[in-house]
Amino acid sequence: MYIPTFEDVLAAHARIEPYIHRTPVLTSSYLNALTGAELFFKCENFQKAGAFKVRGASNAVFGLSAAEAPRGVATHSSGNHALSLSYAAGRRGIPCAVVMPRTAPQAKKDAVRGYGGTITECEPSTTSREFVFAQVQAATGADFVHPYNDPRVIAGQATCSRELMEQVPGLDQVIAPIGGGGMISGTCLTLSNIAPGVAIYAAEPEQADDAARSFRAGHIIADDAPNTVADGLKVPLKDLTWHFVQRHVTDILTASEQEIIDAMRLTWARMKIVIEPSCAVPLATILKNPDVFRGRRVGVIITGGNVDLDKLPWMQG
Amino acid sequence: MYIPTFEDVLAAHARIEPYIHRTPVLTSSYLNALTGAELFFKCENFQKAGAFKVRGASNAVFGLSAAEAPRGVATHSSGNHALSLSYAAGRRGIPCAVVMPRTAPQAKKDAVRGYGGTITECEPSTTSREFVFAQVQAATGADFVHPYNDPRVIAGQATCSRELMEQVPGLDQVIAPIGGGGMISGTCLTLSNIAPGVAIYAAEPEQADDAARSFRAGHIIADDAPNTVADGLKVPLKDLTWHFVQRHVTDILTASEQEIIDAMRLTWARMKIVIEPSCAVPLATILKNPDVFRGRRVGVIITGGNVDLDKLPWMQG
What we know:
Two copies of one chain form a homodimer.
Chain A: H1 6-16, E1 25-26, H2 29-35, E2 38-43, H3 53-63, E3 73-76, H4 80-92, E4 96-101, H5 106-114, E5 118-122, H6 126-140, E6 143-144, H7 151-167, E7 173-177, H8 182-194, E8 199-205, H9 210-217, H10 239-248, E9 251-255, H11 257-271, H12 281-288, H13 290-293, E10 297-302
Parallel strand pairs in A: 2-10, 3-4, 3-6, 4-5, 7-8, 7-10, 8-9
Antiparallel strand pairs in A: 1-2
């Protein structure tokens, strides 16, 4: 297992800069008054392909050698990683093969194809996905880019908090959602090198709290099919992300489904930005644990904005 | 009728700067590719109180003399002007009396009260509104701040395009929605002074196209109770805004209800920002008239983001 270093982060940043946005940091005096903290929202919902995942995906794609590149990249994902990898491969002009469950939303399939990715459908089960993916990889010889348990991906995600530290001086804390742990690992990698005094918090849905339980138990615990509105956060930690989480995270806080939906709606209503349920989890945990954040300067990573505008969670039920 | 000058704009900008945001300008490579133009979105949806109207309201409130101020300000509005005037009066610590129809959305009433405004309800008719407003003004002696037909308000709105011109060099065109004409008049006032070569387009719903018909007729035509999803644009031009529109506007373009809703949804989906139906009208007209905008650098004023998140127009019907 190769552990990425801060030199990898610097190399990644130079490599991907032409293909990503340096996203803005927004503030809200209303949310500051409500929480008693100074919140700085790093808006990766404005990122290319609508999510931070394009950082890691671009680092993997543009790091391929001239000999490797023509065979392209491949992944299995029904979410932002599939979009991001397709976008990055399209920018480099190489093939991108994505294995997606046939039940994935049509909008996501259209977006992958819109960026030039090729979709092979599988049944919505792990067995089918792994079987189909192995076939696709054998047929194409493509480089497998895991959504998070890949040092190139983590080094790419780490560029986000590097920008944040440049944009906002004097942060006390940074908080980001945790699913598989790619963004949090990147945050740990950057901050442990350039700002080791900054506390790192991870935020997780109560209904998919495998990372929080892993953190307390001292070893990876994987949930069996968790269910949460924050659908980007259902996946478990893996060895590489666990390496960073157990060493550098201060605490993992959780929020209920209703608290996540309320925080999402509050962000839309007050900040006028479209964010996914996943990235409302940090604000939900800040509102739930005011003593942890009051009086502090807090970086909050808004991870993405790819949401189904026809199915908003506060309208269901 | 006092016609505000560019000196009034400069004075307004200095006066209101501590109380407003210098809002960011966002771009979208997707929308640029779709339209063939270079679009620069001036995001007043991120403005204090959620709309550009806080510029004019703040200019009126902070321009009151020490003798006038204690009697406060008053207006009739069920929309962003009511919120903005309440916000500005709250910042100065003076009373703000708002006459609102009793049928106005509870969320709007709550927001006005949240900023410290006092609401007097009227029946939803012009007769009742004018009668109740006259009573309120007589009782308080408050200064009447019209939502748009007021030189202080127009000078305040004019600061928006002054910022835009500083933020984006070399614009060919600027487009903004038109209702009563406050924002367009401010845009005319600024551009005719500092960038007279920039073409000014106004965008209006087909179903409330009184400004377009006025423009072609050469005199003000008021609609009788127009109905449109762009509810900020139902009001008619008045003498002061007509002065600017007839002198400086290049053309007034219109879009259908469905085109407005589609453009709104497209903005949410692609730019990840929450915008009101009113400010989707410019993009709708750009998409409808590609030859007017293709190859040009176009400033698009996003006027506000105060929308009912429980009633999104693409979900009704």
